[in-house]
Amino acid sequence: MTRRTLLSETWWQQATTIPDDDREIAKHYTLERSDLDLIMRQNKASNRLGLACVLATLRYPGRPLAEGEVLPPGVLRFLARQINVDHREIDHYFERPQTRREHLALLFDRMQIRPFAPSDIRVLTGWLTPAAQTLRQADKLADMVVEELRRRRILLPTRPALEAIIHVAIRRGIRIAHRALANGLSDDQRLELDKLLESREGTNLSVLAWARTPALAPAAANLDKIAERIRFLRSLNLPMTLMERIPAKVFDEFAAEGMRMSAQHLRDLSPERRHAVLAATALHLSRHLTDCAIDMFKKIMGVLARRADNRAAARVTRSVREVQKPLKDVSKVCHAIIEAKEKSEDISKAIERAIQWPAFTVSVAAVDR
């Protein structure tokens, strides 16, 4: 089966194409004094320009100049100006194919560079594996490999070879993390984790599926069910120190796998990977459900507090309504007294005209309450 392409076409084109931007041309193809000394030893103008072109492509992007390959006009003119030759001299350079090969051999020796070898795949895979444990983006990993190749003075490999390095490094990084997590488990813990994939008694759900699908609506009954799941997960006695055995990002990836995969798919995994994924999932669920329980408790308390506030507000409203009429009665009597006093009338008669005495005493008692 053909392995899918890892590197984007955009990345590969950028990594292998000769730049045509003036700034990039100046950055990569400005010849040093030692370069000029070597180039100017060539007798023919065409050979001087050809050697400059071979040197340029070896330096960037890091590959030999192909037979008959003419560099973009901007690069060719830039190199030609530096060595004072006509850029059209390149037409004569390829008349003798042996010259290009001789120049390659000369520059390999002078620049201490060499072509990529099959043995480099193994070496660079080992070098890349630590980074591939946490970084899974092929283009970014490829950038790291290319930079390391230039540091080691090795030319760019073919695309399949570069993708093989990245592919193996990622797989190896994942396996190392699986092993690191699984090796932190006892035999009993592995057995208990495997039981997560069994059906829960009286249901068609696996224990894991039950644990990862609690009802989250804020209700006391649901809070009890979450607490039941937390107690069960903690009964597995998985040490929290397991999380320290691998990078946090990788741990989260394993937990996400366990939250997503069915029990059947998890059963089909290799034991080492299965136990690593289940351990990460159980620890993640324990923390996640604890957070859910706290959030739910806060919501329930909020509901209860709002209900209590509403009841208190209702009582205040009722109390205000109940005291409004007695207050009006007392106010009416007060106005009657004031009016009688101003007119020098009998106050008791004024009160009796305003309100019946028994009703007045009832209103005063209501206000006093």
UniProtKB/TrEMBL annotation:
Residues 6-167 form the DUF4158 domain. It comes from the Bacteria. InterPro entries: DUF4158 (IPR025296). It holds the Pfam family DUF4158. This is DUF4158 domain-containing protein. It comes from Ochrobactrum soli.
